[in-house]
Amino acid sequence: MPVPARGDPVSDNTSREAGADAAGGEGPKRVRADVRRNLDALLTAAAEIFATSGVDAPVRQITARAGVGAGTLYRHFPQRSDLIAAVFRHEVDACADAASDLAAQYGPAEALCRWLQRFTAFIATKRGLSAALHSGDPAYDTLPAYFDQRFMPVLGALIDAAVRAGEIRPDVDPEDLLTATRNLTLPAQEDESGHTRRMVALLVDGLRYGAKGGPAAG
Predict the structure, then answer these.
(1) Distance CA 131, CA 136 (A)
(2) What local confidence, expressed as pLDDT, does residue 24 receive?
(3) Domains of the chain
């Protein structure tokens, strides 16, 4: 079962801006490239700043790092919550997409372990996101479902590959494993990243117990 690939990453705001600018007479391809470049710069800058300063970091820090003006940011993201939601989706996509690369580079159990390490790093950098998700802002309503829609299939594919290879036990549930791994990061601080990595490695080692060719589970 191959690791699923992500869909079209272009946001509705990006599409609207590209269409409007193209209608103004500029070459559509160049406009789309410029819009995409600005959007990527904003999302990357915001993700970096949110990871170190939290989701309430000043907008001017984000625009300065992205190298764009405030007007560009607000055209894409009229509200702060729009930006936070977009960054979350962008980071979820990057984490989910890493699964296929890892599956191509490593054996099944090692790819699973490395992806879970990548997942814990993703969770640990989401400072302030939990409070935002529970704020009642409608911009966040679809994020929990998006989280599951992107992560469950790729984790399931990694688990299936490791089971077929006889490297982990056959009764591993993706939802249980994702929840257990996520809980290892709570609370997570920057100086605890080494500890979290060790705990993930121990967790995956435990999954090997009862695998084909390994010791039988009691």
Answers:
(1) 10
(2) 44
(3) 82-208 (1.10.357.10)
Count of alpha carbons within 13 Å of 184, Cβ hemisphere only? 25
How deeply is 186 buried, as exposed, middle or buried, from its count of CB atoms within 10 A (0-12, 13-18, 19+)? exposed
pLDDT (average), residues 183-211: 68
Q: How far is CA 205 from CA 55, 109, 211, 216, in A?
A: 35, 9, 11, 14
Global pTM value: 0.75
Among 97, 91, 51, 49, smallest CA distance to 73 is for 49
